[in-house]
Specification:
The protein is an all-alpha fold and 428 residues long. It contains 14 helices and no strands. α4 packs across α5 (83-95).
Length: 428
């Protein structure tokens, strides 16, 4: 076992020696010697030899360029985990160099190399995600791989980060950060031209930053001035609104006072109007009462005249009816002989008892039936009539016209009994 290990070590030392010689020959431009030394090593599975042999075939430095052969040697080395072979194999699939373009395979081999912290592979993976080649476009994922490549000093990765900050791709837009990344890219640039390009981009960003800062300063000053003006306008509006509110309150108070005064005046006018209405109603009532009284007085005077006329007529009829009886009685008295006068014996007078005088019987009026009609007598016919009715006697004006109690007795204005007329109308 020890001998085997020693043999292996000797073989490895010998291969390392041959590989170093082959690499020196390659660097010296002696590609024939390099291929001669690299080929047996590559066939024995040396990944470094396989990678370099693939590079010689892809560069067309020994024989006519043959990407198929180059790809075979790259694949052999890449499968053994050789990072440079993985990077070159991924680039061939990405660019379609010697093979059909396949972004999925390109991303596979480049990711394997990026995981070994190869800056070029990290940069290429970031660019694939940024462009969305074979995968969903993702600026955030691209920025992540750019940062990994930038940590290893890859100038292009620094420039890509600057571009992301300048455009706001995967990160918040920030010209200051973009200028910073362009500055670090210039520091890692491989040649003067590339460096000057990065510096020019940084200068343009700094100029934009200065302009933006000036604009921001001016805008800030304008905003402050606008805010001050707005505050002044707000104060003026507040003062105007306060003045308007005070005026409204004053007007409302004045209106309330005027309304109160007007209400008081209106109440006074209403009271006066009510008093006038009462007075007018009283006047109308007085006029009505006066008119009714005058009418009643007229009616009473007419009734009184009718009653007096009827009473006079009645007396005349009674007197006319009584005259024949008186004349006949007188005639009988005149025909009766006068008795002889007898001597009167004087006797002792007896006490005389006073007897109350007998009240002569009043002459009864003839019955109504005996009264002659207007046709028989040829006199004016008087219809049956009564004095004022009970309802009429209850009238307040009638009471006013009646003589007060206890006054001097006189001829009553109205008799309160029914008047019987001397004649009745014939049934016919």
């Amino acid at each position: 076992m020890r001998i085997l290990i020693i043999l292996l070590l000797l073989t490895a030392v010998a291969q390392a020696s041959e590989l170093d010689e082959a690499l020196r020959a390659k660097e010296a431009g002696n590609d024939v010697k390099a291929v001669t030394l690299l080929l047996p090593l590559a066939k024995n599975g040396n990944p470094v030899a396989q990678f370099n042999l693939g590079a010689l075939y892809s560069q067309n430095r020994v024989i006519q360029r043959d990407y198929a052969v180059a790809m075979q040697w790259y694949l052999a080395a890449a499968e053994q985990g050789y990072v440079l072979a993985q990077v070159n194999l991924g680039m061939m699939y990405e660019n379609g160099t010697g093979v059909a373009q396949d972004y999925q395979k390109a991303l596979h081999w480049l990711t394997l190399a990026a995981k070994q912290r190869n800056a070029s592979a990290e940069l290429q993976v970031g660019q694939i995600y940024a462009a969305g080649l074979g995968v969903q476009q993702n600026d955030g994922e691209a920025v992540k791989w750019y940062r990994l490549a930038a940590e290893q000093g890859n100038a292009i990765a620094h420039a890509k980060l600057a571009e992301c900050y300048a455009k706001g791709l995967g990160v918040a837009q920030n010209d200051a950060m973009a200028a910073k990344w362009y500055g670090t890219a210039a520091n890692y640039a491989s040649d003067e031209k590339e460096r000057n390009g990065y510096l020019a981009n940084r200068a343009a960003l700094e100029k934009n930053i200065a302009k933006r800062q000036a604009d921001e300063t001016r805008l800030e000053e304008e905003q402050k001035a606008a805010q001050a003006e707005a505050a002044r306008i707000a104060e003026e509006r507040a003062a105007i609104n306060q003045a308007l509110e005070d005026a409204k309150q004053k007007a409302a108070a004045q209106a309330a006072l005027e309304t109160k005064e007007q209400s008081q005046e209106l109440n006074d006018v209403r009271k006066e109007l009510d008093e006038l209405r009462k007075e007018l109603a009283q006047v109308k009532s007085d006029r009505t009462r006066a008119s009714q009284r005058s009418m009643l007085e007229t009616q009473m005077a007419r009734r009184r005249a009718e009653i007096n006329a009827e009473a006079a007529r009645r007396r005349r009829e009674i007197e006319a009816e009584g005259r024949p009886a008186k004349a006949e009685k007188k005639a009988q008295a005149d025909k009766k002989p006068t008795p002889p006068v007898k001597p009167v014996a004087i006797a002792k007078p007896e006490p005389v008892t006073a007897t109350p005088p007998t009240k002569p019987e009043p002459v009864k009026p003839a019955p109504v039936e005996s009264v002659k009609t207007a046709q028989d007598t040829g006199k004016i016919k008087y219809p049956a009539k009564t004095e004022l009715s009970d309802d009429e006697l209850k009238h307040p004006l009638i009471r006013e016209l009646q003589p007060p109690a206890g006054s001097i007795p006189g001829k009553p204005l109205i008799k309160l009994k029914q008047i019987e007329w001397s004649k009745k109308q014939n049934d016919s």
